[in-house]
Write a structure and sequence with these properties.
single chain; 85 residues; mainly alpha; 85% helix; globular; membrane
């Protein structure tokens, strides 16, 4: 396996771990760990896809990354507005 394979494998494993933990009701979808696993996992998988120049997965993982980034941003906004009060 190449370093790119390891990168993609790590990313996809993180996404699948988040999904499995949610399925088993260990993590809720709004739990920080769930969002972070998806965020980092999608970034790594997207990066591997960019390196491999495989555009369908760049689109898929890039979208997954943006959705996770949005969820992280919303969590941060909520926490920030709570602390400001």
């Amino acid at each position: 396996m190449t370093p790119t394979d390891y990168l993609g494998f790590a990313g996809v494993s993180m996404i699948l771990l988040a999904y499995f933990l949610n399925l088993k009701k260990i993590l809720d979808t709004d739990h920080l760990l769930y969002v972070l696993l998806n965020f980092v996992g999608a970034f790594l998988a997207c990066l591997a896809s960019v390196i491999m120049e495989y555009l369908p997965f760049v689109l898929l993982e890039g979208t997954w990354f943006l959705v996770s980034a949005t969820a992280l941003y919303r969590r941060w906004q909520k926490r920030r507005s709570f602390l400001v009060r």
